[in-house]
């Protein structure tokens, strides 16, 4: 077969027609079938091209019969091919040694030096003289050598691998000169509907075929009604749930304990008063907070602690002059949908203070909070707050900045800036900003600070214990930066990132 014909036969249809013609020819010679590997060599085709033709013909029905067969054969590695052309490493080393010998250091610099030296020494072809003046010197120990390694490889190349003993093949394999490969071939025979020409089978019955009646003379491809279709993608977790899991894992890796956050309803005492937030604060207005009608008020409080909170609000204490107003119990008893998970942190810190001996603690929470916002493109009535709290002796603003850097680095956020801020229950306070690669600007990613003594000391925490804390929203764009940058992976299909950035939950003024 000419090279031109071989090039033309590279397509699956052409290869299939050549295979059918070859099958017709061998059948005329009285042979029952042919091997796909031998047929590929005879037709000048790559074996994989012919295998594709076999599978294509199998889809046409009973044109051919094909039985898959598996065999193993030995092939030369690239290094084995090199030895056939240049000789084995040990022979090359032997031939490179002149009559006056060669310094071992020079021999080792030869391309075949290291391997050849070891093998030639094993064969006792060379000897080493360590008493040489300039260092160890190598001399030939025999007059001539026979390159049996090359001879064995030539046998394999000539298709005579079966003539080699198993130990020889294993030795050559160990030297990475031979490799045993598995070859999958097909034994191809004529089928009941054999033909040397391929008629294209129709896949669709069209209205035109029915109207003209041409469908009667056409051959249609069989449908496999038992074939399973592609399973539709379904059951994906919401991207925010995946990101939430990632945040939780980061906290756990940093040694934090998760706080119980199943209390959506809180009293104003734990939500505001315990945090040293005054009762006339605008956040307590009905325009900002959802207050409960039933039950409207909480009943159970730790009374000693409540009295200390009342005193520090109205009269001051612990080095503070307080807010100097008339603190009312009925205001503290009002039930509401919690506006932040810091209410949970206050409960946990109070429980920590009641222990007989103080032990440092690290807490975190991720859960829903509620704000009485007017719903629009940038505001929702609920969102998820992430909060971290660390309590220990002598914690400073530097410790807070260090923990924040570690926390955000684990998120993949490394460019951070800190800006002084005001919070009723932290002093000093900081807003945290990060450069957002997607939006190309610095955006706020959270709030943080050191809890005030007016909040901690009434709880009963020892003097000298500091508590650093930070909070952020799961939905804010920079907080789901990791999720946004991997949003395609999270949801399992293509997503327009600009649509994500412009969505209500990701607007910067949210």
UniProtKB/TrEMBL annotation:
Top-level class of the enzyme under EC nomenclature: ligase
Protein name: phenylalanine--tRNA ligase
Family: Belongs to the class-II aminoacyl-tRNA synthetase family. Phe-tRNA synthetase alpha subunit type 2 subfamily.
Gene3D superfamilies registered for this protein in UniProt: 1.10.10.2320, 1.10.10.2330, 3.30.1370.240, Bira Bifunctional Protein, Domain 2 (3.30.930.10)
Entry GO MF terms: ATP binding; metal ion binding; phenylalanine-tRNA ligase activity; tRNA binding
Keywords: Aminoacyl-tRNA synthetase, ATP-binding, Cytoplasm, Ligase, Magnesium, Metal-binding, Nucleotide-binding, Protein biosynthesis
Source organism (scientific name): Pseudonaja textilis (Eastern brown snake)
InterPro entries reported for this sequence: aa-tRNA-synth_II, aa-tRNA-synth_II/BPL/LPL, Phe-tRNA-synth_IIc_asu, Phenylalanyl-tRNA_Synthase, PheRS_DBD1, PheRS_DBD2, PheRS_DBD3
GO cellular component, one term: phenylalanine-tRNA ligase complex
Domain of life: Eukaryota
GO biological process: phenylalanyl-tRNA aminoacylation; protein heterotetramerization
Main location: cytoplasm
Residues annotated as domain Aminoacyl-transfer RNA synthetases class-II family profile: 242-504
Compartment(s) of residence: Cytoplasm
EC number: 6.1.1.20
């Amino acid at each position: 077969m000419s090279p031109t014909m071989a090039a033309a036969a590279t397509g699956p249809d052409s290869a299939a027609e050549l295979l059918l013609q070859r099958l017709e020819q061998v059948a005329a010679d009285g042979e029952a079938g042919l091997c796909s590997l031998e047929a590929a060599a005879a037709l000048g085709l790559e074996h994989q091209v012919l295998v594709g033709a076999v599978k294509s013909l199998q889809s046409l029905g009973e044109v051919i019969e094909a039985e898959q067969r598996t065999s193993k054969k030995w092939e030369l590695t690239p290094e084995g091919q090199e030895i056939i052309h240049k000789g084995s490493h040990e022979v090359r080393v032997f031939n490179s040694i002149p009559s006056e010998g060669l310094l071992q250091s020079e021999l080792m610099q030869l391309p075949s030096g290291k391997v050849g030296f070891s093998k030639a020494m094993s064969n006792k072809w060379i000897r080493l003289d360590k008493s040489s003046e300039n260092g160890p010197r190598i001399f030939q120990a025999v007059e001539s050598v026979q390159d049996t390694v090359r001879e064995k490889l030539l046998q394999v190349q000539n298709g005579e691998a079966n003539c080699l003993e198993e130990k020889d093949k294993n030795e050559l394999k160990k030297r990475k000169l031979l490799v045993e490969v598995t070859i999958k071939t097909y034994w191809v025979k004529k089928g009941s509907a054999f033909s040397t020409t391929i008629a294209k089978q129709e896949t669709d019955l069209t209205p035109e075929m029915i109207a003209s009646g041409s469908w009667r003379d056409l051959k249609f491809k069989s449908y496999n009604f038992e074939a399973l279709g592609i399973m539709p993608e379904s059951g994906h977790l919401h991207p925010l749930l995946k990101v939430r899991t990632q945040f939780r894992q980061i906290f756990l890796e940093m040694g934090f304990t998760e706080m119980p956050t199943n209390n959506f309803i809180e009293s104003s005492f734990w939500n505001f008063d315990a945090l040293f937030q005054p009762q006339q604060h605008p956040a307590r207005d009905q325009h900002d907070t959802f207050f409960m009608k039933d039950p409207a008020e909480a009943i159970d409080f730790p009374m000693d602690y409540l009295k200390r909170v009342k005193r520090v609000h109205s009269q001051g204490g612990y080095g503070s002059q307080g807010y100097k107003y008339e603190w009312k119990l009925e205001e503290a008893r009002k039930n509401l949908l919690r506006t932040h998970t810091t209410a949970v942190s206050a409960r946990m810190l109070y429980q920590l203070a009641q222990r007989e001996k103080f032990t440092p603690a690290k807490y975190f929470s991720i859960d829903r909070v509620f704000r009485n916002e007017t719903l629009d493109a940038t505001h929702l009535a609920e969102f998820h707050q992430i909060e971290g709290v660390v309590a220990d002796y002598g914690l400073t603003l530097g410790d807070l900045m260090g923990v924040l850097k570690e926390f955000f680095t684990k998120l993949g956020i490394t460019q951070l800036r800190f800006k002084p801020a005001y919070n009723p229950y932290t002093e000093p306070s900081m807003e945290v900003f990060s450069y957002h690669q997607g939006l190309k600007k610095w955006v706020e990613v959270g709030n943080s600070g050191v809890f005030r003594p007016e909040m901690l000391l009434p709880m009963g925490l020892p003097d000298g214990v500091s508590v650093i804390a930070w909070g952020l929203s799961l939905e804010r764009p920079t907080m789901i930066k990791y999720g946004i940058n991997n949003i395609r992976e999270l949801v399992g299909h293509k997503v327009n990132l600009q649509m994500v950035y412009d969505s209500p939950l990701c607007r910067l003024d949210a």
